[in-house]
């Protein structure tokens, strides 16, 4: 029997009724003749609730202890789903990330998977069991519990699919695929039938929440197709249905076509005139990752540097700001009240036409910066104008053509 991996997000397992519905869907997949591995997120807003609780007792919670706390949510989900499947007559067993063989580096809160040792999973599948795995977590080579950052359950699912040589990996949530923009912001947004790994990775990095960027990176490296579908849809039959969105090696569309628009709001920009090596060492000490880095040497041992930072995994912002000022004083400035909007598509920057079109559409809103890659153009805009900027880019790139 072929192995399939299904991942269910927090909204899909938000309460006991939804967990029972997922259990029925898993059993349907099993009844179609598949060996099934299921990865689950924490119920609803459980992770956010745990994080809020931590900050009530500590303004700057220590990252190791945060991992021990935040990993609890997925463990609740896995045990409840296993119980629900057994209640339906299925034979299920649940594993934590460490029990499942998810080995990570020793970076807490946003660890990366370095190896999967799925021996226990393979043994239980051979015994005819449905295996439930707690997503978002693993164990470091130092035997410490680690978590994988926001959306890390996707990464767990894809990494497990690669390790098990699964037929496919299905990511199930409350939406029926990846859309050209957030439908809550852009009513005219349309579902995208297929995306390349690179396009999906750029969309995820730019703020699209359906799939996790690290998960897509895993899928790209291993050549795994990901199917993003709604939990409410029936499971695939012989092969995945044509609905939802498939993310695979190639997507059939002309180069230069904008396929989607994504945005981020929880950003700030770091501007500095310092020795870059000294600043980078400080950021590593604080476990702070930046993106859209621009560095220009201006004189001996002094650089002009701009970097976009996200608050998503920065759980100790107050301490970070304080220590940054203490180390660099006025040489480093943090600019708040900014957001980013991005247009994504293969070959999007083969000419400057897309940059010109997007910049003209955002002229009235006000552009504070532009950065590009082979698959993306990003404009920094005022925070309060992010949604308007998304609508404008969607109008000129996707609705008008």
CATH fold naming of the largest domain? Carbamate kinase
Question: Helix and strand string, N-terminal first?
Answer: EHEHHHEEEHEEEHEEHHEEEHEEHEHEEH
CATH class of the largest domain: Alpha Beta
Mean pLDDT comes to 92
Largest β-sheet summary = 8 strands, mixed
**Helix percentage:** 25-40%
Span from first to last CA?
Answer: 45 Å
For the secondary structure, the number of strands is 18
What is the global morphology?
globular
Brief summary of the model shown:
This protein is α/β, with parallel strands linked by helices and 401 residues long. The protein has helices at residues 16-31, 46-57, 63-70, 72-87, 119-126, 152-164, 197-205, 213-222, 276-285, 317-328, 353-361, 386-399; strands at residues 3-8, 35-40, 92-95, 102-104, 113-116, 130-134, 137-140, 145-147, 168-173, 194-196, 226-230, 245-248, 260-274, 290-299, 302-310, 332-344, 369-372, 376-382.
Plain-language structure description:
The structure is a single chain. This protein is of the alpha/beta class and 401 residues long. The chain is 34% helix and 28% strand. It has 12 helices and 18 strands. The strands form 3 sheets. The protein has an 8-stranded mixed β-sheet with strand order 3-6-2-1-9-11-12-10, with helices on both faces. A 6-stranded antiparallel β-sheet has the order 14-15-13-16-18-17. It has a 4-stranded mixed β-sheet with strand order 5-4-7-8. The radius of gyration is 22 Å and the shape is globular.
Strand-helix topology:
Layout: E1 3-8, H1 16-31, E2 35-40, H2 46-57, H3 63-70, H4 72-87, E3 92-95, E4 102-104, E5 113-116, H5 119-126, E6 130-134, E7 137-140, E8 145-147, H6 152-164, E9 168-173, E10 194-196, H7 197-205, H8 213-222, E11 226-230, E12 245-248, E13 260-274, H9 276-285, E14 290-299, E15 302-310, H10 317-328, E16 332-344, H11 353-361, E17 369-372, E18 376-382, H12 386-399
Parallel strand pairs: 1-2, 1-9, 2-6, 3-6, 4-7, 9-11, 10-12
Antiparallel strand pairs: 4-5, 7-8, 11-12, 13-15, 13-16, 14-15, 16-18, 17-18
Helix pairs in contact: 1-4, 6-8, 7-8, 11-12
